[in-house]
Amino acid sequence: MVSIGTGARSLLTVAGACFVFFSPNALSDAVGSDVKVVYHMDDARSARFALHIAEEQLKTHPDMKIAVVAYGGGVDFLLKGAKDKDGVSYAPAVQDLLGEGVQFRACSATLGFRDIARDKVLEGIEFVPAGTYEVIRLQAEEGYVYLKP
Predict the structure, then answer these.
(1) Of the candidates 119, 118, 132, 124, which has an alpha carbon nearest to the alpha carbon of residue 96?
(2) Is 11's pLDDT higher than 80?
(3) pLDDT tens figures, 73-103
(4) Which one of 3.40.50.10490, 3.40.50.960, 3.40.1260.10, 3.40.50.300 gives the CATH number of domain 33-147?
(5) Which of 72, 74, 109, 138 could potentially form a cystine with 38 if both were Cys, beta carbons 3.0 to 4.6 Å apart?
């Protein structure tokens, strides 16, 4: 029997997780077709990556339900005129994903605290009283799995 160290075991675990994520049928086979995932967005710097992940997940799992919950600095990519570090607007990708059924939810408490009017947020974005609570509620009450892009 070959013995492997903890580091190697961790690497194999990560490799296995990547296989499940990127294998087209592995996720559906493992958990069925009713997969629901909540993306926890508290920093807009990861928004482009999160949007890409959502697009890719929907390609292989078109019935997947995705809710993107933004609070704190995470709401910034949902504001009208927001652009990434390369100057590319987030709005087209957000609108495309909205059209695919992805739900985007912005924290009303963050908007109030930062004095951002709701009309500064992209069309189609839902407002929730507290983003942190919404992430918890979706997991506890609706069976969403958690993802932090």
Answers:
(1) 124
(2) no
(3) 999 999 999 999 999 999 999 999 999 999 9
(4) 3.40.1260.10
(5) 138
Q: Where are the domains of the chain?
A: 1-31, 33-147
Q: Are 68 and 41 in contact (CB under 8 A)?
A: yes
- Would you call 102 exposed, middle or buried from its count of C-beta atoms within 10 A (0-12, 13-18, 19+)? buried
**Structure-block tokens of residue 116:** 């951002």
Question: Cβ contacts of residue 130 below 8 Å, gap of 6+?
Answer: 71, 107, 108, 109
Q: What is the pTM of this model?
A: 0.79
Structure tokens at 118: 């709701």
Nearby residues of 116 by Cβ (< 8 Å), 6 or more positions away: 75, 79, 110
